[in-house]
Specification:
Oligomer: single chain
Distance between the termini: 57 Å
Number of helices: 3
Organism: Pseudomonas triclosanedens
Strand content: under 5%
InterPro entries: PhaG_MnhG_YufB
Order of helices and strands: HHH
Keywords: Membrane, Transmembrane, Transmembrane helix
Number of strands: 0
Number of domains: 1
Protein name: Na+/H+ antiporter subunit G
Length: about 110
């Protein structure tokens, strides 16, 4: 495998790991449910997407071709993460989850 491909795989793995770490930090540090929901949904999707892209690139250059499993995981992830976040946000609005006082507006108004 060429050095360029190895460097690109390493870059994608590092970027994916960084996004996953930022999503986890955002989940821990943000003040209320709505902002906590936003960080891991966006960042973890990008993180897992980067890792899967690195996996696709690595195995496709080894002569095995692109795996259908990796493509299906990517499609499943990019479809289900926003839908589940939307459903969680709607459920929180129905339950009138508390919002940090400095946040503008109320989601249920």
């Amino acid at each position: 495998m060429s050095v360029l491909i190895e460097a690109l795989v390493c870059l994608l793995l590092l970027a994916g790991s960084l996004f996953a770490l930022l999503g986890a930090i955002g989940l821990y540090r943000l003040p209320d449910f709505y902002t906590r929901l936003h960080a891991p949904t966006k960042a973890s999707t990008l993180g897992v997407g980067g890792v899967i892209l690195a996996s696709m690139l690595y195995f496709s250059t080894r002569g095995e071709g692109v795996s259908l499993h990796e493509l299906l995981i990517t499609v499943f992830l990019f479809i289900t993460a926003p839908i589940s976040a939307h459903l969680l946000a709607k459920a929180a609005m129905q339950q009138r989850a508390p919002v940090k006082p400095g946040t503008e507006g109320k989601p249920w108004e």
